[in-house]
Amino acid sequence: VQLQAFGGGLVQPGGSLRLSCAASGSIFSINRMGWYRQAPGKQRELVSTITSGGSTNYADSVKGRFAISRDNAKNTVYLQMNSLKPEDTAVYYCTADGIYLNSGYYLPSAYWGQGTQVTVSS
Fold this sequence. Notes:
Elements: E1 2-6, E2 9-11, E3 17-24, E4 27-38, E5 45-51, E6 56-58, E7 66-71, E8 76-81, E9 90-101, E10 106-107, E11 111-112, E12 116-120
Parallel strand pairs: 2-12
Antiparallel strand pairs: 1-3, 3-8, 4-5, 4-9, 5-6, 7-8, 9-10, 9-11, 9-12
């Protein structure tokens, strides 16, 4: 299983970006997908998660500004980021856990993408 994230970049404060992350491999289903971020000198922190049923969870710092969604058929998760602030600057990592493979094998561990840089600056 591999996760590949896209969509990072440089944006001015108040701007928007949309991240996407596609999981590949012989995947039958993924329970939960989400995004974490890590700013320089800080620990990695949760941004948002979404289950296969559509239940979402957000960090307080992004509620009302970020929206997570997913396409189960494409094993892809999205993060729409609006009203971006300089403090949102970080490397954003996508994650997936609770994966069933087409073989029926269950992968209990979380898988991580390579990270994509988001920089919010004027």
